[in-house]
Amino acid sequence: MNIALWIVQILLGLMFLFAGSSKAFSYEKTKASMPWVQDYSRSLVIFIGVAELLGGLGLILPYALGIAPILTPIAAIGIAVIMILAAGLHIKRKENQAIGMNIILLALALFVAIGRF
Length: 117
Fold this sequence. Notes:
By secondary structure, the protein is mostly helical. Helices cover about 85% and strands about 0% of the residues.
């Protein structure tokens, strides 16, 4: 079970590090590639990016370093909340193809949260 948790933590963490860095540091590129970004302020998109970056780091570093490992399941819960909010946004915009990915990422984040608590 520990190996499965590590695999999910690393993959999920890297995915959120990549997604968060594009939103936080490449706003114009993100605006061109993600239609929903055009409807929200630059500061909100950067905030979401920073939250995703911190969540991605929180999924890996605390447990890997043994420093405050309780932060890993807390980060997983934070990622789950982000995915719930993202699914709501995509439902509102009628972007049904994106909702499936949100649900998968939500399930993986909950798997890590439950497994690490």
